[in-house]
Amino acid sequence: MAIISNCTTSTLKNAAKSLISGNLVAFPTETVYGLGVDATNKAAIAKLYRVKGRPTDHPLIVHISSMANLDKWARDIPEYAIKLARTFWPGPMTLILPRTDLAKDFITGNQDNVGIRVSSHPFALALLKEFEAQGGLGVVAPSANKFGKVSPTTADAVSEELSDFLSPTDLILDGGTCRVGVESTIINCTQDSPTILRPGAVTAEMIYQRLGITIQLSIDEGNLKIKAPGLLQSHYAPAARVFLLGDTQPGDGFIAYSSIPTPIGAIRLASPKDNDEYANQLYQALRLADSKRLQRVVVIPPINEGIGFAINDRLKKCEYKL
Ligand code: TXA
Ligand code: MG
């Protein structure tokens, strides 16, 4: 497995060719790094699930270079979904839509819908354009981490997490640190009105302001009959135990706004000044806790505003449960 940091036209061409040949290519998006595979290649996708250690009934998101390719993968697209796509793509938003025959069971976990995203990261866009120019139709890319663990926001984090599991022909494209830092907003567009299945940088408030569409945060996913993220007890979790708002003990990691002082004896892991910085730094800070082999991390959660909803969603999922 090689890490490519000079993402020139020729290296991106080679990376696209590598995807077409059935290899895994990790690449940056504006949210987190994805582990890319040709979305039509069954054998390569089986390898992807093995590398991630992910159960095969967990569906994958198909990444395309533009909304123009949406109808290859999705059908019966509601008007509100078109509006969402026009407004927030390319960007940190995934739409769940009824699938076409191209979206096979091996990427949708046997569901009759499919997740689609157009990332705004210049390397992701360039890679996908080149992949499509070489005849490819879409690239599935789950976050480039082991199942249940913290998503990587740098190429080094991808390498630390997966290098032992990747083959010599697989690649990691280094596009620097991801700007947003938490995964895309996932919106269920298979019903009369949209619901948010996973909060992210595109918020319900932004959707209302830009489009006048009221969107619910789906709490009871049980009756949706779709496999939504975070139904598991523990997700997005480091090896260290994460405590929200708890008392700190000497040697604990500590994550809070910069305005909150570090308790005596605690080890500061991040000091974001606002929610955007909080999202941008959170996963790196959790990884730092593990690299320092800390047993516990105390986190003072951000206020529920803007991307704060997404941060609090992830914090609740990685919180240590007895
Ligand atoms: O920001 C992101 O979305 C990143 C970057 C790389 O694009 N990708 C990402 O993928 O977070 P992943 O696989 O780590 O998380 C996607 C989540 C999973 O929990 C999966 O269950 C859910 O999206 N998902 C995917 N397709 C779905 C579908 N058809 N219906 C319901 N949930 C779906
Ligand atoms: Mg993930």
Shape estimate = globular
Spatial separation of the terminal alpha carbons: 38 Å
State Rg: 19 Å
Mean pLDDT: 94
Strand/helix succession: EHEEHEHHEHEHEHEEEHEEEEHEH
Report a brief summary of the structure:
By secondary structure, the protein is α/β, with parallel strands linked by helices. It has ten helices and 15 strands.
Can you put this structure into words, describing what you see?
- With 322 residues, this protein is an alpha/beta fold.
- The chain is 30% helix and 17% strand.
- It contains ten helices and 15 strands.
- It has an eleven-stranded mixed beta sheet with strand order 1-8-2-3-7-4-6-5-9-10-11, with helices on both faces.
- Helix 8 links the parallel strand 10 and strand 11 (216-217).
- The longest helix has 17 residues, at 275-291.
- The two termini are 38 Å apart.
- Residues 220-227 have low confidence and may be disordered.
- The structure holds threonylcarbamoyladenylate and magnesium ion.
- Magnesium ion is lined by residues 142-143, 151.
What tags apply to this protein structure?
322 residues, alpha/beta, eleven-stranded mixed sheet, four-stranded parallel sheet, binds magnesium ion
Explain the layout of strands and helices:
Layout: E1 2-4, H1 9-20, E2 25-27, E3 34-38, H2 42-52, E4 61-63, H3 70-73, H4 79-88, E5 93-98, H5 105-108, E6 113-117, H6 122-133, E7 139-140, H7 155-162, E8 171-173, E9 185-188, E10 195-198, H8 204-211, E11 216-217, E12 241-244, E13 253-255, E14 267-270, H9 275-291, E15 296-299, H10 308-318
Parallel strand pairs: 1-8, 2-8, 4-6, 5-9, 10-11, 12-15, 13-14, 13-15
Antiparallel strand pairs: 2-3, 3-7, 4-7, 5-6, 9-10
Helix pairs in contact: 1-6
The structure holds threonylcarbamoyladenylate (TXA) and magnesium ion.
